[in-house]
């Protein structure tokens, strides 16, 4: 049975229940953990601008490595070489690196290691990427949510002010998801250095690969209360392989390993080889970054022309206000136009988050949303 036939027979296509299920999950900044959502959005007819994936596929060097590694899939994997290669990229030692099945695994581990006792609070901007706050909340942590500034920047001053005696952790993304906005390096660096040493600061740099700004990684050598999060999902096109990592002081990494047996993470033989090869695929990264820029211009030209509130993104997703559009645009885009984007609630204000596809995808997107302008 073809995928489409299976989806039809299982009622995943066109069923009203299905659409409402998808739309119900759209108000939060959720990205991918919804099986039926994933099934439907792989349909050829659907333009998937919903999960900040790489629209150019898997980095070619990684693809070759995956195919070559197929015959090794009967063997358990030893990921030491990948850990060392990542460590040397950052001029650190393997004791500073922890690999995970996607950065999601490391973000979850950060939450588990600090909130497993169900006590304490997490300070985080909202809206932001959901995984770490979601796991912390499930464990019983108190959520202290801090609004973005009027420019949709992470508000570091208010994050600092929001700290309570119970605060164990601060989590922020730079650039931020869903806005794609970023803090200047000097601002985020001073903030990182000023966070009280009894509070762990988790800085998610998954989108920093899209800009030339320096990472905060050099700080970890002398600062134990800092964990930096990185991913292979975006610029290397390996979202489906699941590979990410955390970088921290050796003692901090040891602390994370209290909750995960060393070497027993979710990384497969194929993922491991893909990761090793991807790190050398500079041509693919260069091509993607330049195309991503070109595609953003298509979107921004349209939004500027229509005077729609929007913010320059330094990542591969961008938000714009839904004020000038049909209230149901996001759900109609999926059901009628087969374009999958997200609706973001920013403290009562509604935005569309669109992942940046190829320039032609963005052309189709802006032509399509035109009809929803009010
Ligand atoms: C800010 C941020 N961090 C982490 C992730 C998770 O990425 P991964 O695929 O590495 O688990 C995402 C995914 O979209 C993200 O937007």
Can you summarize this structure?
This protein is α/β, with parallel strands linked by helices. It contains 14 helices and twelve strands.
Structure description:
This protein is α/β, with parallel strands linked by helices and 374 residues long. The protein folds into two domains: 3-57 and 283-372, Aspartate Aminotransferase, domain 1 (Alpha-Beta Complex), CATH 3.90.1150; 60-278, Aspartate Aminotransferase, domain 2 (3-Layer(aba) Sandwich), CATH 3.40.640. It is built from 14 helices and twelve strands. The chain has helices at residues 3-9, 16-24, 35-41, 60-69, 80-89, 103-115, 131-139, 156-162, 185-194, 250-256, 269-278, 282-305, 329-335, 359-369, and strands at 47-48, 97-100, 121-126, 142-147, 167-173, 200-204, 226-231, 244-248, 317-321, 339-340, 342-346, 349-355. A seven-stranded mixed sheet has the order 2-8-7-6-5-3-4, with helices on both faces. The chain has a three-stranded antiparallel sheet with strand order 9-12-11, with no helix packed on it. Strand 11 (342-346) and strand 12 form a beta hairpin. Helix 4 packs antiparallel against helix 11 (269-278). The longest helix has 24 residues, at 282-305. It is globular. The termini are far apart. The structure holds pyridoxal-5'-phosphate (PLP). Residues 31, 52, 102-104, 129, 173, 177, 204, 206, 231, 233, 239, 244 line the site of pyridoxal-5'-phosphate.
């Amino acid at each position: 049975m073809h995928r489409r036939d299976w989806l039809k027979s299982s009622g995943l296509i066109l069923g009203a229940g299905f659409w409402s299920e998808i739309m119900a999950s759209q108000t939060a900044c959720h990205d991918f953990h919804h099986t039926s959502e994933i099934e439907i959005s792989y349909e050829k007819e659907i333009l998937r601008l919903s999960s900040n994936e790489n629209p150019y596929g898997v980095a070619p060097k990684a693809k070759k490595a995956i195919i070559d590694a197929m015959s090794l899939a009967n063997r358990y994997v030893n990921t030491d070489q990948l850990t060392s290669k990542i460590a040397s990229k950052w001029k650190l030692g393997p004791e500073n690196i922890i690999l995970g099945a996607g950065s999601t695994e490391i973000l979850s581990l950060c939450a588990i290691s600090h909130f497993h006792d169900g006590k304490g609070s997490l300070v985080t901007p909202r809206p932001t990427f959901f995984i770490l706050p979601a796991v912390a909340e499930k464990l019983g942590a108190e959520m202290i949510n801090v609004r973005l500034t009027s420019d949709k920047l992470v508000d570091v001053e208010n994050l600092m002010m929001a700290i309570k005696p119970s605060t164990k952790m601060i989590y922020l993304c730079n650039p931020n998801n869903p806005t794609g906005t970023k803090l200047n390096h000097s601002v985020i660096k001073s903030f990182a250095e000023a966070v009280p040493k009894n509070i762990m600061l988790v800085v998610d740099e998954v989108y920093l690969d899209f800009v030339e700004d320096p990472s905060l990684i050099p700080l970890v050598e002398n600062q134990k209360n800092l964990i930096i999060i990185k991913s292979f999902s975006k610029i290397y096109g390996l979202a489906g392989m699941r590979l990410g990592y955390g970088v921290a002081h050796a003692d901090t990494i040891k602390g994370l390993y209290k909750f995960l047996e060393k070497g027993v993470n979710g990384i497969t033989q194929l993922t491991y080889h893909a990761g090793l090869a991807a790190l050398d695929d500079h041509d693919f990264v260069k091509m993607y970054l330049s195309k991503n820029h070109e595609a953003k211009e298509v979107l921004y030209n349209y939004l500027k022309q229509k005077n729609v509130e929007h913010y320059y993104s330094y990542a591969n997703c961008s938000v714009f206000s839904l004020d000038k559009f049909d209230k149901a645009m996001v759900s109609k885009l999926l059901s009628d136009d087969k374009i999958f984007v997200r609706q973001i609630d920013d403290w009562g204000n509604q935005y569309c988050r669109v992942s940046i596809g190829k320039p032609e995808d963005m052309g189709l997107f802006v032509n399509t949303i035109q009809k929803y302008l009010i």
